[in-house]
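I would love for you to help me understand the pair of lines that follows before we discuss the fold together.
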Amino acid sequence: MPKLLEMIGFVLVSIMILGFVGALNPYIENGLTPLFWGCAGGTLIIILYRKRKRKQAGLE
């Protein structure tokens, strides 16, 4: 599960960066679009989820 979350996070960050700089302009709009914010939110959720799981594992 942790490796899967890392891969999903990596894909989200990659799409976020490519969308921001406009590298895939015909496919993805460049700039601060809803796609950028969706990927940023998804990445933040993964980070918070993994942090909570590590904290729970340390307490048990």
